[in-house]
Specification:
Elements: H1 8-25, H2 42-46, H3 49-60, E1 64-70, E2 81-85, H4 92-103, E3 108-112, E4 123-133, E5 137-148, E6 154-161, H5 171-184
Parallel strand pairs: 2-3, 2-4
Antiparallel strand pairs: 1-6, 4-5, 5-6
């Protein structure tokens, strides 16, 4: 339990009374402990609020590409054909951005619905993009999954998450970063 200190004016008056008593009667009192910080002072707490607020904003406002994950299967470098599933309820431009990122890894790919997926590709890609509105539409999150075509097993995944105090990320750059994180995962 924290002891409540008297207001500063009362502290000064008590010290003055002790000083008069010492001078008049020659009584020496033990030295008083110095007050480092008055917990009731608005100035001391108020001076810390901007620092606390800034720390909270920085922690909550971060957007990040999470480290990619590999879940077994053949090495991604050996897979050279892919199919990107574009669902009608997700943004097609994300699928095209994934296709561009895969080209950088020497992967030939096509896009379309899950029902039109060819049987002769090495793997297919599914994604989920979530968008929110704040003066303009912005990418709130993105999940990308690489799935082995022959077995249907998940072989890699990656994600992007925007923070509470969000940024307005370039969706193409974030998509490419997520694909890169999957390829870098071990």
């Amino acid at each position: 339990m924290i002891a409540q200190l008297p207001p500063p004016r009362q502290l000064i008056e008590k010290e003055f009374d002790l000083f008069r008593c010492e001078a008049k009667h020659g009584i020496r009192t033990p030295p008083k402990p110095k007050i480092v910080m008055d917990l009731n002072s608005r100035k001391s707490i108020g001076s810390r609020l901007p620092v606390l607020f800034l720390t909270g904003v920085l922690l909550a406002g971060c957007s990040s590409v999470e480290p990619g994950r590999r879940l077994g299967g053949p090495p991604l470098e050996s897979l050279k054909t892919a199919y990107i599933v574009i669902r009608p309820d997700y943004a097609a431009k994300i699928g095209w951005n994934i296709q561009e990122a895969l080209i950088a890894h020497g992967v030939t790919s096509t896009t379309g619905s899950l029902q039109a997926k060819p049987a002769d590709v090495d793997f297919y890609v599914e994604y989920e993009d979530h968008w929110l509105w704040d003066l303009t539409m912005y990418l709130a999150s993105l999940n990308i999954r690489f799935i082995e075509n022959s077995s249907g097993h998940l072989i890699g995944s990656g994600a992007f998450r925007n923070g509470l105090f969000h940024t307005f990320p370039n969706e193409k750059a974030k998509t490419i970063e997520v694909v890169e994180s999957i390829y870098k995962a071990k």
